Amino acid sequence: MVPKDKKGSLNKAFKYDHHRFRESSGGCRVPKKEKGKSHSTRPVTHRKPSWCKYTPEEVEALVVKLAKEGNFPSKIGVILRDQYGIPLVKPLVGKSITEILKEYSLAPSIPEDLEMLLRKASRLHAHLEKHKGDRHNKRALQIIESKIHRLSGYYKRKGVLPKDWKYTPTVLAVR
């Protein structure tokens, strides 16, 4: 029940905090730039499409070739989709792109999503060195660093990163 004052009107001091009472998955809300729902859709079935003429060996060779050219796994997937007409690698080969790269010892040492966040933080650090009064990007850097800390904790628990790995701006300078 909402508290009322002596006159019977709603108490102005009472404010319903919908963030506190919402049903959530337990984590806190992370600020992001994405606002819309527009995106490409994945194939409905996970079977090999009838129009795809590539054999699993050819797809695996393409993945290895593109990785040796210096492409990240997500970029490899986009290239295979757009240039070769391969919608998904896993239904064709039975393994994901990163699993194929691990077989050939071409997998990146740091997971791709963490690597991209580290690069973004590095660019923002360089920007803030020149423009010390830029408060908006200072806040953006805090948000990115928060994402880095949360993601690195996850990868440490999963054993992808070593337990002693720690994010510092000097880690960025090495990259």
What does this protein look like?
The chain has helices spanning 18-21, 56-68, 73-83, 89-93, 97-103, 112-130, 135-158, 169-174. It is mainly α. Among the domains are: 56-103; 112-174, Orthogonal Bundle (Helix Hairpins). Helix 2 (56-68) packs across helix 3 and helix 6 (112-130) packs antiparallel against helix 7.
Q: How is the topology of this model organized?
A:
Blueprint: H1 18-21, H2 56-68, H3 73-83, H4 89-93, H5 97-103, H6 112-130, H7 135-158, H8 169-174
Helix pairs in contact: 2-3, 6-7
Describe the structure concisely.
Helix content is 51%, strand content 0%.
Q: Determine the number of helices (DSSP H or I, runs of at least 4 residues).
A: 8
Question: Mean pLDDT score, rounded?
Answer: 83
Relevant CATH superfamily of the domain at 112-174: S15/NS1, RNA-binding
Percentage of residues in strands:
under 5%
- If you consult CATH, what is the topology of the domain at 112-174? Helix Hairpins
Instruction: Give the termini separation.
Output: 56 Å
What is the C-level CATH assignment of the domain at 112-174?
Mainly Alpha
Shape: globular
The count of DSSP E runs of length 2 or more, i.e. the number of strands, is 0
CATH architecture designation of the domain at 112-174: Orthogonal Bundle
Radius of gyration: 23 Å
Name the helix and strand elements from N-terminus to C-terminus, one letter apiece. HHHHHHHH
The biggest beta sheet reads:
none
The stretches of 5 or more residues where confidence is low (pLDDT under 50) are 16-24
